[in-house]
Amino acid sequence: MIQGMRIPEYVQIKDVSPRDGLQAEPTIVSTDQKVELVNRLTAAGVPVIEVTSFVSPKWLPQMADAEEVMRRIERKPGVRYSVLVPNPKGAERAFQSQPDEITVFVSASETHNYKNVHRSISESLAGFAEITEMAKDAGVPVTAVIVTAFGCPYEGRVPQSQVLDLAAKLTGLGILDITLGDTIGVANAVQVYDMMEAFQLSLPMVRLAMHFHDNRGTALANMVAALMAGCDRFETALGGIGGSPFSPGAGGNLASDDAVYYLQEMGIRTGIHLEQLLEATRFLESVIGHAVPSRVYRAGGRMTPVGPEGDWHE
Amino acid sequence: MIQGMRIPEYVQIKDVSPRDGLQAEPTIVSTDQKVELVNRLTAAGVPVIEVTSFVSPKWLPQMADAEEVMRRIERKPGVRYSVLVPNPKGAERAFQSQPDEITVFVSASETHNYKNVHRSISESLAGFAEITEMAKDAGVPVTAVIVTAFGCPYEGRVPQSQVLDLAAKLTGLGILDITLGDTIGVANAVQVYDMMEAFQLSLPMVRLAMHFHDNRGTALANMVAALMAGCDRFETALGGIGGSPFSPGAGGNLASDDAVYYLQEMGIRTGIHLEQLLEATRFLESVIGHAVPSRVYRAGGRMTPVGPEGDWHE
């Protein structure tokens, strides 16, 4: 009996290019350009956009205009404009800008968390407890990203149980929207599929999202594995920007363009208009001044038969 | 209950770089270099190698030394050295070189077949009937590739039934080893998975292999879908070469390096030694004189934790 591939009918894309993408760019992008990028993502139909990050400008000068960007973007009803916060101090700033959700982040591996935010995982969680209290008062939902969830540059492979334990602590703080980040692009299909199943079994209340980096060209393959295990939320970045643009084989994010194209070809709805998204990529490329890694942007999205007279070489 | 991802324990990789790869290269590669490429693939543990093609040198000058390459390669017992033939004339030449198998090819779409080999699909099949007779006498197995099996540049999306009908005709000629080629890189996971299931249902005697091109970065994702539907044979090319090196966003083959790395990470055996394969890629790159698209070759295969003192930027 033909079963068919068991996949979701709708997938929610959260585009993180204005934050995770631009923070990795060497060029400082102007506030005008950031606002236009977010507006173009909105116009293309992206349902959730990570607009900026309320980190100290000392650490990330690229995000120093967080308040201004949040004030100037055109908000479309129904679209969620999300912001990243590293700690309670950042959250305080963030709430002033009326985000639709705020996102906290913690590493699955102790060493990476310390290198990234200069505190232990427990110290990060203590901060989240404060933040969720503030969020309750402000009426803003909190989501969390567990970074290095599949592998850590310092500790290597991260055990599944370590990720589940950390996620359980997040649910204890009332955070049920959790994203797993493959920060250095080392996840594989089996690991992703099994992780997804383990969450469904032990933390069925969690709404899990996946955030794949593409250092080794594995991001789309990992997305297929996640989809087949029932995952219906992905974080991607326009053009595939992000990661470190200075390292060879640059490991950007899964490109929103590539993800949306492939989901559309699979018959999965995203509500995103691919051609308009590719227009936004064209704009992004002009802003950052170098080629983006997106494959569909380069090769063209739809198959357009050239007809019997077309020129074709195998 | 945790099911785990249902995948094969062993996957057979057929490296087609000496043929499908080199034929697309503008530089003429010397016979010595071709022989060394095949020998390096053998040394890395590749179980099946597509060594060359017995086409007219008029059409493909790059393959004019087919006989000499076949004579000079070092054959390792157990490894299958395969050759491509376009017609009975090519097959006659091929059998002289004692291949372990010969491969014929036909398009799923009439227009593409005509453009590619200047005959109709029925004329191609008539030629295969002659070839299988010759092969029986020579005691050499015949395999077939159905190209444009997922999409055709002239006719667009190719219906599944068209591929099944053509495959059924091939089985009628005694050809049970059949490869489906996504020649222009337009397949998606659902299409691949459903195709695989349809073959299992209507042509269960066929040993199906998949051959994905990577024009839109979808080849590895399509491999995951095929694996999950039970496919355990893939054709890949060292370094990801192949396709048209002249078009932007060059659509090469799925890189053997990337496929082997990812399968290995998933815990699937291939018998191939990744580090030796990457050495072969280094050699290949020096021969063709330009960067290969393989991602793992660029980024490094294994995750090597740098330890707590390492330098890391998110």
From TrEMBL, chains A, B:
The protein's matches in Gene3D superfamilies, at most eight in alphabetical order, are given as: Aldolase class I (3.20.20.70)
Tell me the keywords, alphabetical order: Lyase, Metal-binding
Matching entries from SUPFAM superfamilies are given as: Aldolase (SSF51569)
**InterPro entries per the UniProt record, alphabetical:** Aldolase_TIM, HMGL, PYR_CT
Q: Which GO terms describe its biological process?
A: ketone body biosynthetic process; L-leucine catabolic process
EC annotation from Swiss-Prot or TrEMBL = 4.1.3.4
GO MF, one example: hydroxymethylglutaryl-CoA lyase activity
Which top-rank group of organisms is this from? Bacteria
Q: What class of enzyme is it?
A: lyase
Segments forming domain Pyruvate carboxyltransferase = 11-278
The record's annotation in PROSITE patterns points to:
PYR_CT
Record family assignment: Belongs to the HMG-CoA lyase family.
Protein name in UniProt: Hydroxymethylglutaryl-CoA lyase
